[in-house]
Automatic annotation (TrEMBL):
Biased composition (Polar residues): 19-38
Membrane topology recorded in Swiss-Prot or TrEMBL: Peripheral membrane protein
Family: Belongs to the COA8 family.
Subcellular location: Mitochondrion inner membrane
Protein name as it appears in the record: Uncharacterized protein
PANTHER family noted in UniProt: APOPTOGENIC PROTEIN 1, MITOCHONDRIAL (PTHR31107), CYTOCHROME C OXIDASE ASSEMBLY FACTOR 8 (PTHR31107:SF2)
Disordered as annotated region, ranges: 19-43
GO cellular component: mitochondrial inner membrane
Organism, as annotated: Euphydryas editha
Matches recorded under InterPro entries: COA8
UniProt keywords, alphabetically: Membrane, Mitochondrion, Mitochondrion inner membrane, Transit peptide
GO BP, sorted A to Z: intrinsic apoptotic signaling pathway
Principal place of residence: mitochondrion
Length: 163
């Protein structure tokens, strides 16, 4: 199971690398067609959000429930990607500002102890955002879990009926 996912990720990475120039540009990446792939495909990590985009397979005989589940998975993935892109962008920007204001002359970086002051301040400032994100994340995942269970049960009964 895990080796299948790793193989899929490698295949997507090869597809992506074949369609990119020597300087990766998001616009030059050709995304595989979801109705022509044999399974979900996992892409390389996004440079800002650090999340891997998943291209969800769209089977030709997809039921309305399966389509609803696939679309909700895509929406949750997009929501998650947007949150972490904004969060990480804000983090990098604030870290850069902190370094400019606190870096003594002649030094190229701060120690881990010196940076811990920034990290704590950033986490304290954003605790409410993280709390709201976690609450929403759990809600969305429970919705996905409910749909996934429904899809599996329907598939189970569908295969038993065809035998």
């Amino acid at each position: 199971m895990l080796s299948n996912r790793i193989n899929k990720a490698c295949r997507l990475r090869m597809i992506v690398s074949r369609h990119t120039s020597t300087t990766p540009d998001a616009k030059s990446i050709q995304t595989p067609n979801p109705s022509k792939i044999s399974s979900d495909m996992i892409g390389p990590p996004d440079p800002v959000s650090n999340l891997r985009t998943i291209i969800f397979r769209r089977p030709s005989n997809e039921t309305n429930l399966e389509e609803k589940y696939r679309k909700l998975r895509t929406e949750v993935q997009d929501w998650n990607h947007k949150f972490w892109t904004q969060h990480n962008s804000r983090f990098f920007k604030e870290r850069e500002t902190y370094l400019k204001e606190n870096l003594p002359d002649g030094k190229t970086n701060l120690t881990a102890d010196e940076m811990s002051v920034f990290y704590k301040a950033f986490l304290d400032k954003n605790w409410k955002t993280h709390l709201n994100y976690n609450i929403e994340w759990y809600k969305k995942n429970l919705m996905l879990l409910g749909l996934a269970i429904q899809v599996k049960i329907k598939k189970l009964f569908r295969t038993k009926q065809t035998k």
